[in-house]
């Protein structure tokens, strides 16, 4: 479990998982919008693969990525739904407003 949570701690890796989850099909590495270098992107895919979140295989010269949804759902029910349901804020966007509990006018 530790390795899975550490893999999902990074926003780029969460974006990859969300992309695979949303598409519902296998995707080549090059189809993901990356804001990092190619070598760093390769590292992120490796971390996801070693954590057991994705499976990688070749089709011709393309390295394909498959979300191991059945395995993950069996081991961690609801995890993928939670990750996919919480999109990252855009870079430079203000943080979401915080909800104040109590306080105010006392009404």
UniProtKB/TrEMBL annotation:
Which intervals hold domain HTH arsR-type? 1-87
Cite the Pfam families for this sequence. Answer: HTH_20 (PF12840)
| Sample GO molecular function, one term | DNA-binding transcription factor activity
Q: Where is this region: Disordered?
A: 83-107
| Residue stretches of biased makeup (Pro residues) | 88-98
Give the top-rank taxon of the lineage listed in the UniProt record for this protein.
Answer: Bacteria
> InterPro entries under this entry?
ArsR-like_HTH, HTH_ArsR_DNA-bd_dom, WH-like_DNA-bd_sf, WH_DNA-bd_sf
Q: PROSITE patterns per the record?
A: HTH_ARSR_2
Q: Cross-referenced Gene3D superfamilies, in alphabetical order?
A: Winged helix-like DNA-binding domain superfamily/Winged helix DNA-binding domain
Task: State what protein this is by name.
Answer: Helix-turn-helix transcriptional regulator
